[in-house]
Write a structure and sequence with these properties.
Layout (H helix, E strand, L loop, with lengths): L2 E7 L6 H6 L2 H5 L3 E6 L6 H5 L5 E4 L4 H11 L4 E4 L10 H6 L8 E3 L9 H17 L8 E4 H7 L9 H12 L3 E2 L1
Parallel strand pairs: 1-2, 1-4, 2-3, 5-7
Antiparallel strand pairs: 4-6, 5-6
Length: 179
């Protein structure tokens, strides 16, 4: 499995180094990290460049940015990650255990930072809703086989809730793998 991690950015200088630092072990194992910038006016690009394999610029908008990243990605599995989201420590091992086919897609459970019991309740509700509806949000690190992305036609070109709209398209192909 070759993984392409695609991160759309816009003025993420406060958090991008933390996000990308957590992905360096993936790069060391031959996976690629792609940042797709939508016109940042801060230091996002400068801070990202030494920590990524490819920098792509795209018109602003997560849908167009993620589609632009997928267009240059070399991996057979695409993973879309928001800059304020981190992957579980065992994400690569989990993904390696999935038999990826033409319609395979999924997402990770939400895990909120913080120790309050209220966060655990919110997490549980979000994850249960996602499992029940088959809808994933961008904060859940949505992943899929390259062929699944192609079969679904990419993210729809809408300004908001592109992740929800894309999930609806994907779940017509198959139920998501919920991790």
């Amino acid at each position: 499995m070759n993984l392409s991690i695609i991160i759309p950015t816009l003025n993420e200088s406060d958090i991008i180094q933390s996000c990308l630092s957590g992905l360096q072990s993936y790069r060391e194992r031959g996976h690629e990290v792609i940042v797709v910038d939508g016109g940042s006016t801060d230091a996002t690009i400068a801070l990202s460049s030494p920590l990524i394999d490819q920098l792509v610029t795209s018109p602003c908008g997560r849908a167009s940015q993620m589609n632009a990243g997928a267009a240059v990605a070399r991996g057979d599995v695409l993973l879309f990650l928001h800059a304020d989201t981190s992957l579980p420590g065992d994400a690569e091992a989990i993904l390696k255990g999935i038999p990826f086919h033409d319609h395979t897609w999924g997402r990770f459970d939400v895990r909120l930072a913080g120790t309050s019991w209220l966060f655990r309740v919110i997490e549980s509700g979000m994850n249960l809703r996602s499992r029940w509806t088959g809808i994933a949000t961008g904060d859940q690190a949505v992943f899929m086989s390259r062929q699944c992305f192609i079969n679904a036609g990419g993210f729809p070109g809408i300004a908001l809730m592109e992740d929800i709209a894309f999930s609806r398209i994907l779940k017509r192909l198959a139920r998501p793998v919920c991790l």
